[in-house]
């Protein structure tokens, strides 16, 4: 267990764009071993308060939720998990990143940390994992937030993401990654990209820079199999807790019609669209996402 420092430049950017910053200590890095893998998480403290478990998207890390945790940590116990193969968690030695393995990891993490019941927030891959987890553990999740993902996703957006993540993954300098992400994430100021990117890349002994995500997940030759659409719709229909479905206003991944179908299929759900946001909503429009998240979580 150690302190995970928040880069001062990230705090500067949060303040500059209007993110709420609740004063407090930096998060604590925690590690537990689940299914033979060391899983890392960021714990923002506030023991005894309602727990929010955050699950990031593919090729992201627990730090993608820093802005959200900064705004919520005065009244919630915010915990963000690095899922297998991402961030500072172990890579799967057998390259197994199936839905089943993710579920086993997350279930084991929740049990080891003894955090149920809790609120659950997940983006993209994390949103899919959150949907299935909630359907299978209705007694664990009190409120659910699914960000820009559903049982069906749009091929255009997936192709764009895969094209980006399949680019050469070792570059000569950190700034090369900044330039690459800036050209991809045009909704974010370069200063915000530079500040947040420090948590997604690492420098190799050779001096080159690379992503923290498992190379197997970045391999363009890798077969990417999604769970059966019918199974995911079945999971959606089982969810009874209050649910907020968040869609990026210009998302190429998550269609508005899919979101409407999800709301109709669920017992207690509503959808909100965050303008000026693509697929990675919390980073594209942090203030808009914060408002929607706070309104939902703080509401009765």
Structural commentary:
With 300 residues, this protein is α/β, with parallel strands linked by helices. It has one domain: 3-Layer(aba) Sandwich (Rossmann fold), CATH 3.40.50.1820. It contains 12 helices and 12 strands. The protein has helices at residues 8-17, 66-72, 99-113, 125-136, 155-165, 174-184, 190-197, 215-218, 229-238, 256-265, 281-284, 286-298; strands at 2-3, 28-34, 37-43, 51-55, 77-81, 118-123, 141-147, 170-171, 201-203, 209-211, 243-248, 269-274. The strands form 2 sheets. A 9-stranded mixed sheet has the order 1-2-3-5-4-6-7-11-12, with helices on both faces. The chain has a 3-stranded antiparallel sheet with strand order 8-10-9. Helix 4 (125-136) packs across helix 9 and helix 6 (174-184) crosses helix 7.
CATH fold label? Rossmann fold
Name the CATH architecture: 3-Layer(aba) Sandwich
In the predicted model, the low-confidence regions spanning at least 5 consecutive residues are none
CATH class label: Alpha Beta
Shape: globular
Number of strands: 12
User: Helix segment count?
Assistant: 12
Q: What features would you highlight for this structure?
A:
300 residues; alpha/beta; Rossmann fold; nine-stranded mixed sheet; three-stranded antiparallel sheet; 12 helices; 12 strands; 38% helix; globular
Offer a quick outline of the entry.
The chain is α/β, with parallel strands linked by helices and 300 residues long.
Describe the protein's topology.
Blueprint: E1 2-3, H1 8-17, E2 28-34, E3 37-43, E4 51-55, H2 66-72, E5 77-81, H3 99-113, E6 118-123, H4 125-136, E7 141-147, H5 155-165, E8 170-171, H6 174-184, H7 190-197, E9 201-203, E10 209-211, H8 215-218, H9 229-238, E11 243-248, H10 256-265, E12 269-274, H11 281-284, H12 286-298
Parallel strand pairs: 4-5, 4-6, 6-7, 7-11, 11-12
Antiparallel strand pairs: 1-2, 2-3, 3-5, 8-10, 9-10
Helix pairs in contact: 1-7, 2-12, 4-9, 6-7
């Amino acid at each position: 267990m150690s302190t995970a420092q928040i880069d001062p430049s990230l705090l500067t950017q949060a303040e500059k764009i209007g993110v709420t910053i609740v004063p407090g200590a930096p998060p604590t890095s925690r590690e537990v071993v689940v299914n033979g893998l060391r899983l890392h998480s960021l714990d923002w403290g506030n023991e005894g308060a309602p727990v929010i478990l955050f699950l990031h998207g593919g090729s992201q890390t627990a730090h993608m939720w820093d802005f959200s945790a900064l705004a919520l940590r005065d009244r919630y116990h915010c915990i963000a998990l690095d899922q297998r193969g991402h961030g500072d968690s172990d890579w799967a030695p057998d390259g197994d990143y199936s839905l089943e393995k993710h579920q086993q990891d997350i279930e084991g993490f929740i049990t080891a940390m003894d955090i149920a019941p809790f609120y659950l927030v997940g983006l993209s891959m994390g949103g899919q994992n959150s949907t299935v987890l909630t359907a299978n553990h209705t007694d664990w999740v009190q409120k659910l937030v699914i960000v820009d993902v559903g049982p069906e996703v749009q091929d255009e957006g997936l192709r764009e993401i895969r094209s980006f993540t399949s680019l050469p993954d070792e570059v000569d300098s950190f700034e090369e990654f900044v330039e690459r992400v800036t050209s991809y994430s045009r909704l974010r100021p370069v200063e915000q990209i530079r500040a947040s990117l420090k948590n997604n890349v690492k420098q190799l002994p050779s001096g080159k820079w690379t992503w923290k995500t498992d190379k197997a997940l970045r391999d363009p030759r890798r077969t990417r199999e999604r769970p059966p659409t019918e199974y995911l719709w079945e999971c959606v229909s089982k969810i009874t807790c209050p649910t907020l479905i968040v869609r990026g206003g210009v998302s190429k991944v998550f269609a508005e019609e899919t979101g409407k179908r999800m709301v109709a299929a669920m017992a207690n759900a509503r959808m909100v669209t965050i303008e000026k946001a693509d697929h990675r909503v919390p980073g594209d429009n942090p203030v808009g996402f914060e408002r929607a998240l706070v309104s939902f979580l703080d509401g009765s």
